[in-house]
Amino acid sequence: MEEVRIPNRATYSPVSLTDVIVAAPLVSRLLLGATLPGRVLQLAALGAYAGSVMKDWARRQSVRKIDFLREFGADVYRFEPMPEDARRQEVRILVERLNDGYVPGRIRRRELARLVDWHLTDYIAGITGQRVRTSTQVRGFMLAQLFFPFAVGACDVLSGDIALFRDTGVFEPHVIAHEFCHRKGYLKELEAQALAYLALAASGEPLLVQSALCERLHRDLRVLAGDDARRFQVLVERSGLRRELARAFLAFRPEPGTLLGPVASFMRSAYDARMRLTGQNGLSDYDFGFTSFLYTFERSTTARQAPPPAGTVWARS
After folding, report:
1. What distance in Å separates the CA atoms of residue 219 and residue 238, rounded to the nearest whole number?
2. What pLDDT is attached to residue 34?
3. Both ends of the chain: CA-CA distance in Å?
4. What's the CA gap between 206 and 106, in Å, rounded?
5. Which of 72, 141, 190, 267 lies at a 20 to 30 A Cα distance from 152?
6. For position 231, what pLDDT does the model report?
7. Alpha-carbon span 317 to 302, nearest angstrom
8. Is the predicted pLDDT of residue 261 greater than 70, yes or no?
9. What's the pTM value of the predicted model, to 2 decimals?
10. What are the extents of the domains in the chain?
11. Range 54-61, long-range pairs (CB < 8 A, 24+ positions)
């Protein structure tokens, strides 16, 4: 099978080169009272960053991207909006499936990232006939965390640098897979959500399948709750989800405090606008779009791909 290797050299730097470029002059000024050392460090980081980005860009030109509409019968622009009654039924099905197949335990992040990448690469290759090899490095911090307090992770789509901002428990395999989709060139959030879910659901690894189903259930509940955090909590508590998973759902996305609340609200609106400017539907692609995409795919009579048995909720009509 054809193989494309994207170097992602910036991801192997001890610290994020993006952070160095942004912060070096300020830190130098604060610590040394001078900007020259910071400027020198900034220029060095910029050169390394630019070199890495150019090599990655050149390699990505050889990547064959998935045609979502042809393969799955839906894409970012064309999917059947999921009816509320169907969504509530899906919640009941997913809760039952997660309770029956609960998998305790964790895998260390480094090993988990390698496992997730292997399955994601294999899943994409099964469709395109091409293995896209990328870095499996994941950071624990990037400055983006300060600007996007509502996010659980981030990916610099130019350099492929990825960070997870905190422990995300049962959701971590899906969060990593989502960011790795960006690293492999799938920049739209709905595409990353869908590919991450489908790869994990098809993996046959109980811990990864559980994460995929948890993500799908979480997004269903967020759509039903709207922007009401209290409503989301009530839905989780009344869902019948086993206690260990219910705690994970409530801890996954805590509401920002009084200080960060206005910042999170402003940045969420700004990010929504950025998504729309790049040909997406806004933040709704993470939950309403994602779950509606899966609903359409699993009921499609035109999709070339078959939904993974471990993740299928709706039988094809």
Report:
1. 16
2. 62
3. 34
4. 11
5. 72
6. 95
7. 11
8. no
9. 0.91
10. 65-299
11. 55/7, 55/9, 56/6, 56/7, 56/8, 56/9, 56/158, 56/159, 56/160, 57/158, 59/4, 59/5, 59/6, 59/7, 60/6, 60/185
